[in-house]
Design goal:
By secondary structure, the chain is of the alpha/beta class. The strands form three sheets. A five-stranded mixed beta sheet has the order 7-6-3-8-9. Strands 1-4 form a two-stranded antiparallel ribbon. The chain has a two-stranded parallel sheet with strand order 2-5. The chain is elongated, with a radius of gyration of 29 Å.
């Protein structure tokens, strides 16, 4: 302490100046803009991009910059690929039924089918994104609804919970769909305690809109989702 006082003339600790940052604010903005345009850009790609401009940085430095801007590498979620006509159809549906009250929607029985893939290629892709942006189109991996699998499940749900779940062996045809409705539809309505004036929702799959379905199962109102 005596030596420190004689050398500096004070007992106060000397503070070193902060190390100068390698990347300028402009460089950081460039990195952030790059991953916002293409979230699948890797940290290694960003390092290479900076090196081409004469700036050498490590991968960890690039990651720290992105972390400071709340951008973290996360696994991209797989979502069903929606074409423009799908999006337009959903918007039309929302516009047409947007004025319905809660009582109406509580009496809607929703239905859908899903194909279960037993052997799929679980490839992980990472994207740079902020919290809450997981389902934005640019942060997801598009998947196709059809294209391989082992079996199909047909189910339904309403505001009160889930209804029956039916396993479909092989290819489902319109005749099979009619049988499934006769077997499970009324049972699910009773289980979920849906009101007397209830609506059954279906999409526009050809087997859902066939005349045979209208003739054989005409005891419910239908709400078609494009």
């Amino acid at each position: 302490m005596v030596r420190e006082y004689k050398h500096h003339g004070t007992m106060q600790p000397s503070y070193r100046s902060a190390r100068r940052r390698i990347l300028s604010p402009r460089d950081e903005r460039t990195l952030v803009r790059k991953v916002q345009i293409n979230p699948r850009t890797t940290a290694k790609d960003l390092v290479k991009m900076l090196e081409e401009t004469g700036t050498k940085v490590s991968i960890s430095t690039v990651k720290r910059v992105l972390y400071r801007h709340n951008l973290k590498g996360r696994s991209a979620r797989k979502k069903l690929l929606l074409q423009n006509h799908h999006k337009k159809a959903r918007l039309r549906f929302a516009t047409a039924h947007g004025d319905k009250n809660h009582a109406f929607w509580r009496n809607v029985l929703w239905s859908d089918e899903t194909k279960i893939e037993l052997f799929v290629h679980n490839d992980h892709r990472y994207v740079w994104r902020k919290r809450g942006d997981a389902c934005k189109a640019k942060n997801t991996i598009p998947t196709m609804k059809r294209g391989g699998g082992s079996f199909i499940l047909c189910g339904c749900f309403a505001a009160g919970g889930t209804g029956a779940l039916h396993k479909i062996e092989g290819v489902m045809r319109k005749e099979n769909y009619v049988d499934i409705l006769k077997q499970h539809l009324k049972t699910s309505v009773r289980k979920l305690k849906i009101g007397r004036k209830w609506v059954f929702q279906m999409d526009i799959d050809p087997k859902h809109t066939s005349k045979e379905l209208d003739n054989k199962v005409g005891f419910f109102s239908s709400l078609v989702l494009d």
